[in-house]
Design a protein that fits this description.
Layout (H helix, E strand, L loop, with lengths): L2 E9 L5 E10 L1 H15 L9 H18 L3 E9 L1 H8 L1 H17 L6 E6 L2 E6 L5 H16 L2 E3 L2 E3 L2 E9 L6 H22 L3 E4 L12
Amino acid sequence: MSYEYLLVPVLDEQGRVEAVAGTARDITERKANEERVRRSANYDSLTGLPNLSLFRDRLDHEIKHALRTGLPLALLFIDLDGFKAVNDELGHAAGDELLRQAAHRINGCVRDTDTVARIGGDEFTVILTDVTREAHIDVIARELLDALGAPFPLGPQNATISASIGISLSPQDSIVPDMLVRNADLAMYVAMYVAKHAGRNAYRYFTVQMHPASPTP
């Protein structure tokens, strides 16, 4: 429980404090309401993950951290391929359950210091911080593809989907949050194209050739 206290000194005839009078008010409900408002503003109600707003704040913070420490970060943009078919065939309740399970699986592949967010629909992002080796990113990307490619138990039946992942690095690819997201998104679409033509499940790193007309900040 939470309380709010109001304390008032009681003075004697010489103006010295001889006692303290006060009241206490239960503000538990108000605090709970404030927490609900805070969560709804920053977290996805379906998965409990950070939403787009909180993701943007954290990405901006982590880019500054990377510049300060000299340790790059990797932004992974994940799209669930085949989710729409599950939603259409099994219904929205099954689709929602798949998203919850997908969020749990993605979280299980990364460290507590990394950030997993759902930024809309069937799109998720992962911010990997303090990356010392690109091989670490490769391991995480493969683990994510394996985890998301495993069957999802949805009531009496299982659903199988796949994923495409685009990866951009900071500061190498950009130090501007929106540009870094755009770069990862472009790489994700390349991964999706590759997956459709060479077997499902793929990840790709961003390269400047993906949008040669646009300079990278």
